[in-house]
Amino acid sequence: MGLYAYALAEILLRRRLVLSRVVLYLFPICFILAVASVYEIFEWPYALSADPAAGIAVLGSQGDVWDAQKDMRAEDLGAPPAIILFAGLNCREIKALPSPLAMAAS
User: What are the backbone dihedrals phi and psi of residue 62, each rounded to the nearest 5 degrees, phi first?
Assistant: First the structure.
């Protein structure tokens, strides 16, 4: 879970959509967390609006009332290692990005 942060960082780097290393590392993680949270939030009212009895059964189908929070935590734990792997495999290209100090001086 959360491993698609690697793909998002790859797109940002290849298309030069960001010039900051900090943004390159943090944006994919924050994006993954936001998507996971929004998905879980929309899943709940949709399941209840379709059929309240069936919605409760679907949402609790794993037998765990904390399933949504555990799903979001899986994303939380998967995104940072994906970004660390991305940084390790693309260190030459990332080093070519301007440093924050050089950007502040200009």
Answer: -85, -5
